[in-house]
Amino acid sequence: MTKKRVGVLISGRGSNLQALIDACGAPDFPAKIVLVVSNVPEAQGLVRAELAGIPTAAINHKDYPSREAFAAALDQALHSEEVELLCNAGFLRLHTEGFVTNWLNRHLNIHPSLLPAFKGLDTHRRVLEAGVTITGCSVHFVRCEMDSGPIVAQAAVAVQPGDSEESLSARVLQAEHHLYPHALKLVAGGILRVQGESVVGRTHPQAQPPLFSPPLD
Ligand code: GRF
């Protein structure tokens, strides 16, 4: 099997990166991570990648005179490792329009809500304030508008009475760690693809969406 060459963009802890690293360890997984890039040089996720023997690059946005120059440096690093598919995993910079266009339909993001609800930062606080009883996480193809784009997969997580931002985010994060490898497998394996602004291929048996959280450990 030819594995898709994946690049992962991070800014911090890298727990979703770790879930992707672990999933890519399976011989039949259709992707392998060939580069991890962080815009924050001290990001814990870089250490996770190094421990897994994956090439890393710290490309600090502060070292570049413009967003475009930073995007060009990212592009160059990704092309030098022949990255075919890109995953944002807790990458806290907005991409330029040019970068989004360069990676159109080859670029995934994970967001800790059931999109299109609760885009943006402080998601769990706003979920709790809104009083919704079900939240979750989404993996989607990246578009210029933040946390927007064709949805690949979602998992729902119940908000429990007495939940704090911390308890809720921890439970959603567990779901994220199942969802992102699931979504990457479907896209890298060619089961799901983008047609216009929709994702097609959902009738495939492996693509059945988990209506509620995938089984958690
Ligand atoms: C996750 O909740 C992800 O959904 C959001 O940022 C967080 C990153 O966490 N985009 P980690 O760095 O993967 O642990």
Provide an overview of this structure.
- The chain is of the alpha/beta class and 217 residues long.
- It folds into two domains: 1-103, Formyl transferase, N-terminal domain (Rossmann fold, 3-Layer(aba) Sandwich), CATH 3.40.50; 111-217, Rossmann fold, CATH 3.40.50.
- The chain is 32% helix and 23% strand.
- It has helices at residues 15-24, 44-51, 67-80, 97-102, 123-130, 165-188, and strands at residues 4-10, 31-38, 56-58, 85-88, 107-111, 134-141, 151-158, 193-195, 198-200.
- The strands form two sheets. Strands 3-2-1-4-5-6-7 form a seven-stranded mixed beta sheet, with helices on both faces. The protein has a two-stranded antiparallel sheet with strand order 8-9.
- Helix 1 packs parallel to helix 6 (165-188).
- The longest helix has 24 residues, at 165-188.
- The chain is globular, with a radius of gyration of 17 Å.
- 41% of the residues are buried.
- The mean pLDDT is 95.
- The structure holds 5-O-phosphono-beta-D-ribofuranosylamine.
